Write a sequence for this structure.
């Protein structure tokens, strides 16, 4: 049994940071609650929205979502092997992987160095095959939730505005309680 915990949308406020920079550049007023589809490009109506994340400092300066530190403390104390599971959308984004490791060490360094708990893949689809029936997968992506479920993992979906169509979504507090109480054993 192991635990794989996604970063963006579970621990880090990727969407809030992206929308803040987008709004600043384009004079718009989007909020996280406006994102109703995992493909944020549908809201922004621009297939090139990802360029906002390629600026130096974007990944290093994401806010920590409420409850994230408690979740990682609980995972770390669970006695199970675990890893942060995160995607880097484009290989040409030279800042993303380095800044992601820096961000994890800065905010979660008390629970082990990012390097020893970091699994980086190039896209959500590349996560396919990582989820065994002995895995607990914590994510906010409908696509990843479906992939993990097909591989018989225990899937815990952090409730976000863009995943309302997924049954049994959980708050971060409910996910933390699930891990703390070892509910997968029941």
């Amino acid at each position: 049994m192991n635990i794989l915990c996604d970063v963006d949308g579970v621990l880090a406020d990727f969407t809030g940071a992206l929308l803040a920079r987008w709004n600043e550049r384009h004079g718009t007023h989007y909020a996280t609650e406006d994102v109703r589809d995992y493909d944020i490009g549908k809201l922004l109506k621009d297939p090139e929205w990802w360029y906002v994340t390629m600026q130096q400092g974007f990944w290093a300066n994401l806010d920590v979502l409420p409850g994230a530190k408690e979740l990682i403390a609980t995972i770390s104390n669970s006695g199970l092997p675990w890893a942060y599971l995160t995607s880097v959308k484009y290989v040409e984004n030279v800042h993303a992987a380095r800044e992601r490791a820096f961000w994890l060490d800065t905010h979660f360094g008390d629970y082990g160095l990012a390097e020893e708990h970091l699994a980086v893949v190039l896209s959500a689809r590349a996560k396919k095959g990582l989820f065994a029936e002995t895995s607990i997968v914590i994510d906010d992506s409908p696509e990843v939730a479906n992939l993990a479920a097909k591989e018989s993992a225990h899937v815990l979906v952090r409730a976000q505005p863009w995943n309302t169509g997924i049954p049994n979504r959980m708050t971060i507090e409910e996910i933390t309680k699930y891990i703390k109480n070892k509910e997968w054993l029941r």
In short: Strands lie at 2-6, 82-87, 118-121, 135-139, 154-157. The first strand starts at residue 2 and ends at 6.
